[in-house]
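Lab notes, practical 5.
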Amino acid sequence: MIPDLQIPWMLASSSAIGVEATSTGFLPLQWLGVLLGLAGLIFFLGAAVGMVRFPDFYTRMHAAGKGDTLSTMLMLSGFALVTMEDFSVGSWLILVKIMAVVLFIYLTTPTSSHALMRAAFEDDEMPLTEADLEKSKKRKRRKKK
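Output from the prediction step:
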């Protein structure tokens, strides 16, 4: 059995002073972060629904590219705000690092979506037309009967 040892050091966020400052002064900032995170989850859900519902590769890639970029940016921005317990140097460094990731995703996700769409187009993957959509609807009706 290990005896209970008293640890002489404590983290600033777990001390009584840190908890009081977090619970009173910065609560609106944390609530804004939670709301941004929830908005990001809603956009992730919209992107997932678009991936399932849209008929062809190009519209699915559009849903994935737009939804993924916006929802990731919202969620990471919300996470950055939630981690801002105080305005110390450590909190600012975390905020800057998270915003650097957001900037990287903002630049690379549309570029990769465009590269995938261009590769599909060069591989003769053509977008569906209205006539193609009508044919697929008729086939689905025949299968149900």
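Observations recorded by the TA: Residues 29 and 81 are 6 Å apart (CA to CA). Helices lie at 16-25, 27-53, 57-82, 89-122, 130-144.
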